[in-house]
Amino acid sequence: MRPLCVISGGTSGIGFEISKSLVSKYDLALIYRSNDEKAFIALGELEKFSAGGVKTFKGDLSVIDETERLSKEIEDWRSAAPSVLVNATTLGQMSFFSLEPVEAFHKSLNDELYPTVNLTHCMVKKMMAGGHGKIINFSSVAAEGSSVAIAGYSVAKSAIETLTKVLAREVFKRGVRVNCIRPALISVSRNKNVVERVDKDLLAQVSDIIGAVEYLLNENTTTVSG
Q1: Angle at CA 114, nearest 5°, toward 98 and 34?
Q2: Would you give the DSSP letter of residue 150?
Q3: What is the pLDDT of residue 201?
Q4: Which of the 8 DSSP states describes residue 35?
Q5: pLDDT class for 168, splitting at 50, 70, 90?
Q6: 97 by DSSP, 3-state: which?
Q7: How far is CA 178 from the centre of its chain?
Q8: DSSP-assigned letter for residue 83
Q9: pLDDT of residue 113
Q10: pTM of model > 0.70
Q11: DSSP string for 159-196
């Protein structure tokens, strides 16, 4: 049996691109929130390269009970502890902290931060029990706080970077490595309207992201963490 890789947001956007790059090496558990059509199309595409080694799981990772249910479903499908977790869920909503109801800010945290927090909390325990694992989180240059109109998104990504550093120290001696990729705006279809207004030299290409993921999963980078 091949090692298991869990990918949140793995049926669309950059998550799907990562899924395509890893499907030849891992069994994939792909978590998505609501878009059944995209999940169906993604599964069909990935199954061409993996006989029975890909399965989709639907649920809202911002809800703890839902996350625990999904974790149990993945465990029932593949009893082994996950070797890799990629937290690729992101929506990137526009929001002004001072001009919108505070609920809009809370929603951004629910959408951008808590899926990573909840899923990591479930999966890292399994990795620690197994004595190994690699976690890759996704941040953004927006974590620097240099962009307007994405207040909640920026704060969420900054928090993910801090979580990465704190958790990396906490679990290093248990064989688990935790890292974070901080790309610029990624040139994928979901970002089409924004991408068209940005200098092409400032865009992160999908190949850049895949290269970073492959580097962090390489057996020669087993001590890279945090």
Answers
A1: 100
A2: B
A3: 61
A4: -
A5: very high
A6: coil
A7: 12
A8: S
A9: 96
A10: yes
A11: HHHHHHHHHHHHHGGGTEEEEEE--SSB-SGGGHHHHT
